[in-house]
Structure formats: structure tokens, C-alpha cells
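User: Hey, quick favor. My workstation is busy. Could you predict this chain's structure for me?
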Amino acid sequence: MSARDNISQIEDRGLLRFLTCGSVDDGKSTLIGRLLFDTKTILADTLHAIEKTSAKRGMEAVDLSLLTDGLQAEREQGITIDVAYRYFTTGTRKYIVADAPGHEQYTRNMVTAASTANLAIILIDARRGVLPQTKRHSYIAHLMGIPHILVAVNKMDLVNFDPAVFDKIKADYLAFAAKLGIKDVKFLPLSALTGDNVVDRSEAMAWYDGPTLVETLEAAPGAHSEHDEPFRLPVQYVCRPQDSANPELHDYRGFMGRIEAGSIAIGDAVTILPSGQTTTVKDVQLAGQSIGSAFVEQSVTLLLADEIDISRGDMIVKSADTAPAVTKAIEAELCWLSETPLEPSRRYLVRHTTRTTQAKLAGIAYKLDINSLEQVGADKLQMNDIARVTIKLAQPLAIDAYADNRGTGAFIVIDESTNNTVGAGMIVKAAD
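Assistant: No problem, here it is.
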């Protein structure tokens, strides 16, 4: 039975968002191109275009990396600069894959790509082994809360498919992963260029008896499946229909938003934060129809039994669940995204779920040296810097630690004067 036949026997496990990262020229874009090519997700005109580009470069085979290196500047330099997102399906599961740039100066791009990923593929060139950039990307993936890591040892064809090379890289990476506290890490030898162990099993690596790349992706747990998450619904909009022809809508008040965690059903007791008022759920609606109950990532409307003053930015939680902390000061890991340095004396806006509030930097505990992964002192942040900071807020936020809930544990920093997003943060805890 072929790998494709095995895949067809696996049940639909929903959408999987994953990230590819690693050092420059490790083959990230080629690997994604191989996935798109072997899963027959490429349109005929797209394939024809990259065939022409490959021929212009004097290549005998099609350069599959061109499927993700979409910017003309990237094509001319032969590197990935921005994050390239691609979508494909194997028939039993849908995927969103992000191809993160390999250069240190594009750390902010990788942070952006990692923020929504549930699995990271760390590519390692079999000839070069574990490099500093491998460690940097592994650290960022771990910092961003990606729960599953797949180390793909690429270009095995260039080391004669030697199992000793694979075993050495595996041992080196495990030693490093243990220091970071990475728990779920798997290893896979492959060749993106030739397709060995990507979709079909490699005859040249009969010594490897584990799953192929696609089989690993098919079996990967989906988002929100790692642990039970308490219910969280940030209120995005308060719906008050005005229809004189329909008097039944006169008293209608629905609280609309996207469920960031957990589930909700009619009759559940809920608490409104930050006010702390309590009530019960009278109805759960989707597209105007009562559905009785709803779960994470659904956008729904809740009707409540009591008249409570609720506005955009408030959060609805189950009274029986562990409540988020309500605080006006947070401790967080902050990645600075802007070319303009962070100015400690300036006020910024912090947007957390659906609430936006003024904020000010209260202190920088340390900055991460992205090369050595050591913590160093700092009094300011430049673009691509990652630091542990304390931020004071003008209004209280209902927060979870990012490690517990990525939806309610993340925030962005906005420059008030330009409305540009200048920072992205992961909440560690409420600050004193």
C-alpha cells in the first residue's frame, strides 16, 4: 500500500497551520514547492510560469522553490525575504503553510508567521548539521508557543542517505532541545529536491521506518487540542437591530464575537469581565439561527438572560471555569517590529483581543541576544529585538498567560501617531 493509500484511510482532522524555518539555503521553499507539486495543488498556468523561469536560469529541472518565493526581489536574489503563505489540501486535511525567511534581520517576520502556527518544521541541511540559526528559530518557535516541532533533515541525497549523519544531527538537536524545554519533537530524514520521504517513502532510506512528512502532517494534533481551555469570548460588537416593521427585535441585544477558547451552551452561567457581573446564556446564534451550543473558533452571537451593560472589549467567560486575570499591568515577551526604536517615555496603544487601551513601558528586564540566546541588559529596543518587559495599561485587561491560551495571551503595540503596528507581545503574567 502506498503512502497516498495510507493517507486516504486517515479521518479528516481539520485545518493545520504550520511553519517552515531554518538557515538560508536549507531548502524551505523547495520543500513547500514539493508538497504543493506532489499533492497536485499547483495550477497549470503557475507550473508553466515557473518552468519558464527555471529554464531562463539554465536549470534542467523545475525549481519548485519559486512556488513560494513570490516577490520579484526574492526571485532575483534566490532568497526568501517576506513570509510566503500557501494553501493546499491532501483531500483529508487542509493546510496553511508559512515559509519564514532565514536571515537574522527578519526575526520579526518569523515571529509573525509563528504566531498562528500549531507545528513548526525546522529544516537542517544534512551537510551542515545544527547551526546557530537552527537554534534561533527553534527558540522563537518555542517562545511563540508552537506545541509540536518536526526536525526535517534535508538534502540527505547529498550525504548518500547515510543514517549516521541523521543520527548525529538528531543527538545534537535533542541536547539543545532539552535545555530549552522543548517536549514534543520528531525527526525525519528527507530530500525535498528528489521527494524522498515527502509524500512517498524513500527506497534509498529503507533504514528509516517512521512516517513520511505528509503522514506526519496528517496525524498532527489540531489547534486547541493540547489541553482543556476555559471558555473565552471577547465581545466584538453589540447587536441592537433597528427595524420598526419587526417589533420583536425591539428588545434584542446580542453580543457578537469569536470564541477564542472552550465551548458554550444555552443555560451556562457566565461572568462579564472586567465588571464581574454574572448571568446565564439565553441563546447561542450563528447567522441569525439558534444553534444551542458553540465551540472554539466559531463566530457567534450570545443572548443573555439579564440586562447587563456590556460593550466592545469586554470578555465573556464561564463562571465555573478558571477566570483570566484582570489587571492594569502585564509582564510579557515583546518583539519590536518597527524601524523606529521603542521610546520608553512615549505612550503607545495596546490591542488585546477586541480591547484597545493606552499603555506605557514600565521597564525592560532583559533583552535576548538572538545569536547566543543569552539574556542581556537593555534600556531600549531596536527592530527585531525580543525582550522581557513590563507594561502599564490605562484600562484593565482580562488576560491569560500566552502559554495557556495564545488567543487571550497575545497583544500588539500600535503607534498612536501613525496607527502602525510596531510590536507584538506574548503575556507571561499579570505584573505587580
